[in-house]
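Q: My labmate handed me this sequence with no annotations at all. I'd like to see what the chain might look like in three dimensions before we decide whether it's worth expressing. Could you predict it?
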Amino acid sequence: MLRQLVTCLAFTVGCRGTPPSQQQPDDIARLVDSLRPVVERATGMRFKGPTKSAMKTREEVHDYLMGRLQEDFPPNREQGIQAVYRLLGLIPDTLELKPLLLDLYTEQVAGFYDPGTSTLYGVRGADPMQLRLVLAHELVHAIQHQYLPLDSIMKSKGNADQQSAAQAIFEGHATIASIQVLAPGQNLLSNPQFWSLFRQQVKAQQTSMKVFARTPLALQEELVFPYLNGAEFMHWWDSARAGQPLPTLETLPRSTEQIMHPERYQAGDAPLPLRFADSSADVLYEDTLGELDLQILGAVLKGMTDVPTNPAAGWGGDRFRVYRLPADGPALLWYLVFDDAASAGRFVAGTGGLLQAKQRAGYRTLVEQVAGAAQPTVRVVIAPASWSRWSRLPRLR
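A: Here is what I predict for the chain of 397 residues:
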């Protein structure tokens, strides 16, 4: 029984649409109204106002997603993220991120909540039962938006790791509510077997999709992280913060490390803010990767097919820059601060050693501990051998 329920839940969280359907466009308003009290009971929160809803065709969804990608990934950000993922070996040099993301999102969506218009959308052609379950999940986002500024939180730029942590809260909260909607009163979340089964079934469901199945491991893990690890964090939150259904703006986790290791959140282990000391004149893109990407990188370089999140990496903060070098290719400079010298040493000997072992034509790779830093700090440089800054590498403040 547990495995059957978990399989159904995994299907729901995957948000996959399957035509054909008899769902009529006018039914969505009645469907949403019928789900509102169910979602209120599952979340322990009350709607403060009505919920707008509408149906979209798959073509309209495709156009909507294209517009969102154009907004979220302007040229500099797209090129910068693509460069750092390629240089670290997380994706092939031939892979173009934006078209792949568009295909992934279009393949999976059966319904979605748009914070910009405060509207819940159903997709024409989705199976009616699945649409009901997906809309219940998305209705949780609608109620979250009445308590937290989802649109501004998810549009913030400059710290991708913190944004991933916030997304994990919102998707994890919605996933927990979906479980309670599908299996009310069964107390599945306290079953010791539930989480491992749920994780297995979500991944099995996702890999049954053609686009997802051919997507590099790094992107697969980042796509399922908010649902799986976010749900596990929110399950911990429900037991640790009784009576408070959702973190406030002030108490939102600030890193994926805090999501993967709630004890770090509970201990107040916040990431250190890092900044570069020199000019950004020739910088294409700058951001933070975080512990999630650190763990993914180690798994990819070792040729693993899954990403272990334990033990914790001892991550304390990081910051990277991608520099423009039109003739020779981009240069990556990445600083990582660790909680202790042992954690820094493990990174240098493990993931760092694998990075340095990779040969890239015309490039040099450097992984070294930074002498004299206030906390154990590692510098990673992957840049053309001709890069003029090799003799005077930019430093952190």
